[in-house]
Amino acid sequence: MTATQFLSEAIAIAPHPFTVAAQKNNRAPSLALLDNKVGIVTGAGQGIGRAIAEVYAREGAKVVVADFNESAGRETVDHITTAGGEAIFQLGDVSQEASVKAMIDAAVAAFGGLHIACNSAALSRGSGPIHEYERDVFDQTLEMCLTNTWLCMKHEIPAMLASGGGAIVNISSNASLKGQAYNTAYAAAKGGVNILTKSAAAEYGAQGIRINAVSPGVIRTPGVEKYFEEQPKIAEGLKKAAVMNRLGEPQEIAEAVAFLSSDRASFITGQVLSVDGGGAVRG
């Protein structure tokens, strides 16, 4: 048997998941990446999280918009429904396990299951040199950037197992890949997110759940603008961190997340994808 014949037979034996789904429903494959999926996005009230929720909905998913800021979260829902998508808002604090469980329960109650999730919520409590950093600020940053991601996965995974599998995308940061002066707690927490992602992918891959991370470069968000104000000395350098010599936009992260959440990424798990305009390769 030639290599070509082997490959042809392998493809015939294991067709692409979204082709199988279309055949079961007796229709052509949808052009929407996330058709008939139920998804949740944490931190969806603004910035990257909002963009992800909007792209999820654009691609056909029913979306639970989760955020601790009710007015911002409901504004995201308004954006989605005005554009013809389907979404509900769920108030939630991802640092509190009961709140996380309530978010997942809301998705299942409203839409009948959970297939995709993006854990975007994060909050860095401060910045500065290590020898001046307060312990409680360091601990809070770990809680809001690493522990919260673990809590979300802890409750998303059972819901996905009950739904027949799924995909999780955690939002990391390029600070986790190269380190970042005066932002060590955040960089360390996001480094933890990377290893959490890979470890969980190894645990659940055989059970039909793919888990990846997207590592944004410097993206034009309210949080980044605030950081520029706090650290003006390094702001100009960060603005030029990408070899493309510009800041990224939230939707550019969202498009990558939507792909990794979709069946078109069906053989991708345990990966950390940098979406950074080439920042990771700049010396």
Task: Give an overview of the whole structure.
The protein has 283 residues and is of the alpha/beta class. The chain has a single domain (32-220, 250-274), classed as 3-Layer(aba) Sandwich (Rossmann fold), CATH 3.40.50. It contains eleven helices and seven strands. Strands 3-2-1-4-5-6-7 form a seven-stranded parallel sheet, with helices on both faces. Helix 4 links the parallel strand 2 and strand 3 (86-91). Helix 3 (47-58) crosses helix 11 (250-261) and helix 6 runs parallel beside helix 8. The radius of gyration is 19 Å and the shape is globular. The model is unreliable at 6-16 and 18-25 (pLDDT under 50).
Main attributes?
Rossmann fold, 283 residues, seven-stranded parallel beta sheet, 11 helices, alpha/beta
List the helices and strands and how they pair.
Elements: H1 3-13, H2 17-24, E1 38-42, H3 47-58, E2 62-67, H4 70-82, E3 86-91, H5 97-111, E4 116-119, H6 135-162, E5 166-171, H7 175-178, H8 184-204, E6 209-216, H9 222-230, H10 232-239, H11 250-261, E7 272-275
Parallel strand pairs: 1-2, 1-4, 2-3, 4-5, 5-6, 6-7
Helix pairs in contact: 3-4, 3-11, 5-6, 6-8, 9-10
Assess the beta-strand content as a share of residues: 5-15%
Largest sheet, strands/sense/barrel: 7 strands, parallel
The CATH superfamily label reads NAD(P)-binding Rossmann-like Domain
Average pLDDT, to the nearest integer? 89
Secondary-structure content class: alpha/beta
Question: What is the number of helices?
Answer: 11
Give the strand line-up of the largest sheet.
Answer: 3-2-1-4-5-6-7
Instruction: List low-confidence stretches.
Output: 6-16, 18-25
Q: Determine the CATH topology.
A: Rossmann fold
What is the CATH class name? Alpha Beta
What helical percentage do the residues reach?
40-55%
For the terminal residues, how far apart are their CA atoms?
47 Å
Give the strand tally.
Answer: 7
CA radius of gyration is 19 Å
What order do the helices and strands follow?
HHEHEHEHEHEHHEHHHE
Query: What is the domain tally?
Result: 1
Assigned CATH architecture: 3-Layer(aba) Sandwich
- Shape field: globular
